[in-house]
Amino acid sequence: MARILITSGPTRQYLDPVRFLSNASSGRMGQAIVAAALKAGHSVIVVSGPVQVRYPAAAEVIQVETTDEMLRACLAEFPACDGLIGVAAPCDYKPRRVAAGKITKTGGPLRLELVETPDIVATLGQRKNRQQWTVGFALESSDARFRALAKLEAKHCDLMVVNTPAAINAAESSIEILAPGGQVLASASGPKSRLASLVLKTISSQLMPAAPQQE
Amino acid sequence: MARILITSGPTRQYLDPVRFLSNASSGRMGQAIVAAALKAGHSVIVVSGPVQVRYPAAAEVIQVETTDEMLRACLAEFPACDGLIGVAAPCDYKPRRVAAGKITKTGGPLRLELVETPDIVATLGQRKNRQQWTVGFALESSDARFRALAKLEAKHCDLMVVNTPAAINAAESSIEILAPGGQVLASASGPKSRLASLVLKTISSQLMPAAPQQE
Hints:
Chain A is an alpha/beta fold. Chain A contains 5 helices and 12 strands. Strand 8 of chain A pairs antiparallel with strand 8 of chain B, so a sheet runs across the interface.
C-alpha cells in the first residue's frame, strides 16, 4: 500500500488584514478522495486550506491558509510519499503588495496588481523521482479536455482529473480521467464518493506497481 | 417590540466563474445579535451572505451572495422594519469587469480594476424615516474610534459598534458603542453572545421609545 499526499480545499491570498482572494472550493472532493484512499488501505496525509468539512480521523491533516504555505507543507511531506493527488483549488494569483492596514475606501477605483502564485502540482511534478507519481485536478469552464491535457503536460502529471465549475461546493459532480497521451481512461457522474473511488481505482491500476504474485 | 433587519456574514464578488474577493467574516456576531434580538422579544429578518453558522429558527433568513444582492434584499425589507443592525462585512470593492470564463494564467501579472460597491448601511441611513434607526459595525485596524465616528456620520447611523480585525471568525471579541457625538456609551470584551446582549440593551435604551406608562 502507498503513502499518499492529498491537497484539498481553497487557499486565501490577502490584500490587507481583512480582504482576500479565494474561491468556493468546499474540500468535499478532497474529503471524498481521502476517504477512498484510506478505504483502499493507503496511508494519507492531507494539506488543506480553510474548509468546514472534517477529514477522516485516520488521515494526518496539516492546515494552511495561503498557496505558499500549502506549497511549503507539500515540499516537506512529498519526499516521504509515493504520490500526490492535488485536489485543492489553491489561489493562483496573489496581490503583489499586501497592505499592512485595512485599505481605506477613497471613493475612487482601486487598482490591484496580481501575480501568479507557485503551482503546487507542477512544482512537485518536476521534483518527483522515478517511483513517485502525481495526479492533478483541472477545473475548466470551456474546452475542458483540451485545456486539461495541456495542464497535464505542463505540470508533468501522470493523470489529470477534469471537472467543471459546477463541481464547486456541490455534492455531485462529473469527471473524466485523462492519461498523458490524451486517452480518457474513465469518466463518471454522481456523488463525489463514487467519483473518488473511481479516481483511486484508476490510480491503483495505472500507477501502482502490481503486488508480487505468490507462486 | 420592534421589527429589526439584521445583515450578517461576508459577501463575495466574483472576478470570473471561480475566483472571488471576500473576507473571513463567519456570521457568528450576526448570529449572536439575531439571538439577542429575539431574546429581547423583537421580530428579526436576517439578510446573510454565505456562512456556515445557522441562525435561530425564529428568525426569517434571506440568503444572498454579492453586496448588490444584499442591498436589494435590504431595500425591499427595510420599509417594514423599525431599524437596521448592519453586522455584515460586505465586500466593499468589486471587479469593474467580471470575466465570463475562468481567467487563464498567462505567466504574467494580472491587473485588476476594482470599484466600490454600494454601501448598504449608508444607503439605508439616507432613506430612513423619522421613526427608523440604523446601527452600523465598523471594523478598524488602526485609529478605530476616530474612523468609526467618521463612518457613523458619513453613514447617518444612530449608533456605531467598533471592533477590530481580531474579531473576525473568533468566538470572543471586544467592542465599543459610539453615539453620534462621539461618546462611548458602552464597551465590553468577551463572548460574542455577551457583546450582542450589550448592543441590544444599548439600542433599546437609546433608540427605542419607552413604553407608555400606565397611571
